[in-house]
Amino acid sequence: MIKVSVVGAKGRMGSHVVEAVNGAEDTSLALALDAGDDLTQITSENTDIVVEFTVPTVSLDNVLALVAQGVNVVVGTTGWTDEKLDQVRAALAKAPRENQSVFIAPNFAISAVLADYFAKVAAPYFESAEVIELHHPNKVDAPSGTAIHTAHAIAEARKDAGLGAIPDNTQTDGGSRGQVIDGIHVHAVRLRGLNAHEEVLFGNAGEQLTIRADSFDRISFMPGVLLAVRKIASGNYPGLTVGLDHFLDL
């Protein structure tokens, strides 16, 4: 049995993780902690993997503390920057146990991960590309980590293909063109009734390709969470891994 502790266990995502861990045949719940609880309760003796689902303002400190305590961490909290990732890498380099692991997922939904992958495959074949992400208004970060990850992937694929800048003759922006990430415009919608959705638009003269992934319920993230837990528990992914695509054999 893989012993799993959950940090953020009373949150919207964390509560689903607790149920998923309790419901799987190969995982057992060790500790369920939430805001204000003492993370030092989690040790390598009582926990194999920690699943961290909190908020961007505290996630980095949580991960650094857990690494220092000698446990592996699977992170679903978004809002990660290159600077924060570098801090995690530095912490892992000084970790108390050899081959410790941290896994960070921009998105745990298999559909979203595949959409991101398909977007990277399609990117070299289109002159224009834009990303629209749509979420519930309780989400604290914008644009989403998934959309940022998708934009980086599209930009990388375009660069490798030798493509230039995306055409855009807009003269007065006023902020309506979205955040520009590696030359890709990313738009964030926050609307009551939505859960988690992403649409990637590609265009050439006379044609358009739309790739869309919709997660209507948070339960859709649980197969991805359990996949990450199992992969990290295997010991085959030391250090920092970002993105569930590493586990899907794409």
TrEMBL record:
UniProt-recorded Gene Ontology molecular function terms: 4-hydroxy-tetrahydrodipicolinate reductase; NAD binding; NADP binding; oxidoreductase activity, acting on CH or CH2 groups, NAD or NADP as acceptor
GO cellular component, one term: cytosol
Top enzyme category: oxidoreductase
Pathway: Amino-acid biosynthesis; L-lysine biosynthesis via DAP pathway; (S)-tetrahydrodipicolinate from L-aspartate: step 4/4
CDD domains in the record: DHDPR_N (cd02274)
Assembly: Homotetramer.
Name the UniProt record assigns to this protein: 4-hydroxy-tetrahydrodipicolinate reductase
Gene encoding the protein: dapB
